[in-house]
Amino acid sequence: ALEVLNEIKNIMENDLIGAPSFVQIGSKSKIVESESSGLAGIKMDSGLGNFNLSDLPKFGHLTIEAGSGVAYAIGDITASYLSVVIPCNVLPSSMNGNMDNIRDYVSISLICQLMSVTEGPIYSAIRGRGLAYDASLSVSLWNGLLTFSVNDSNDPSAAYREFKSLMCGLNDEFESGCIDLISEDSLKVGKSAFLYQMLEETATPSSMFNCCFKSQLRSIPMGSDDCAEDPVRKVVESVTRTDLALAWNRYFQGFLGDKNEGVLAVLVVPRSVSLDVISKFDGILDFELKSFKDFSSCAGNDSDSDDDENSSETDSCSDDSDDEELSE
């Protein structure tokens, strides 16, 4: 450790004179000094050898066969929330793989962005009709999931029906080749937003480090140095609607199945209208109504019942005290 600190001190004293005083330490990497002196002679390994990459979520290859739906009724909310997920194992498993996964990853991200953008198809069909305050389609690269979510909804079943209708319509357009929901102009706008996000993620030294580290863990290639062209940026610029159609056929078909086929669905509803809300999903999603207590241990249930007894005793005491205060 002392040797490493001395090397860092030498770098700061000899090579960072007049430069911003910022040093980022990212891992337990070895510092190797070559025959040449100065910063150019310092090399650091990636440090990824400290992690067991085989345990990362992206190697799990999640599959959903039978599918399921769970509904939770909560007493102190006034709106409903819905999440429907399908697998999306798109991350490359190693840096040595080809760029097909990267092209799929870019295409999936663009489809989600173009479908969920303000005044876009999902926004107009759901929020524009007053069915929910927010609805979106998103991809979680790390967990390998595609998620359709509805937040603050007064009619989540109607919102989901609109989403299914959009998905079926887009699927028909991709099959026919006449893609109206995603025009060439909107694709250009989506690419610009994607590239801006990439640049924003590397705008500062700390964000640059975070971006590099995450890209290494995700096996997403980056430019070899500051002058090299970013391979992901090159893919973004070259993606076409044909690439979107290929990614659609590979990863989005799970949303087109009947009922719970191939999906996991979670619904949170106000307790007072739970049965009414769930009944409206008849024909499109099946839910099993559960309580959070269903997932607690027997001991937890005992403690809950004890708590209920104690709370009832407390309530009766408080009522008595209130009566005394009123009588006084």
Helix-strand blueprint:
Blueprint: H1 2-14, E1 31-33, E2 42-44, E3 68-74, E4 80-87, H2 100-116, H3 121-127, E5 132-140, E6 145-153, H4 156-176, H5 184-200, H6 205-217, H7 231-238, H8 241-251, E7 264-270, H9 274-279, E8 288-290, H10 298-327
Parallel strand pairs: 3-7, 3-8
Antiparallel strand pairs: 1-2, 4-6, 4-7, 5-6
Helix pairs in contact: 2-5, 2-8, 3-4
Report on this model:
The protein is an alpha/beta fold and 328 residues long. It is built from 10 helices and 8 strands. The strands form 2 sheets. Strands 5-6-4-7-3-8 form a 6-stranded mixed sheet. A hairpin with an 8-residue loop joins strand 1 (31-33) and strand 2. Helix 3 runs antiparallel to helix 4 (156-176). The longest helix has 30 residues, at 298-327. It is globular. Mean pLDDT is 77; it is low at 16-21, 27-48 and 297-328.
Strand order of the largest sheet: 5-6-4-7-3-8
Residue fraction in strands: 5-15%
Which regions have little confidence, pLDDT < 50, spanning 5+ residues?
16-21, 27-48, 297-328
Task: Report the C-alpha radius of gyration, rounded.
Answer: 27 Å
Order of helices and strands: HEEEEHHEEHHHHHEHEH
What would a concise description of this structure say?
The chain has 328 residues and is α/β, with parallel strands linked by helices.
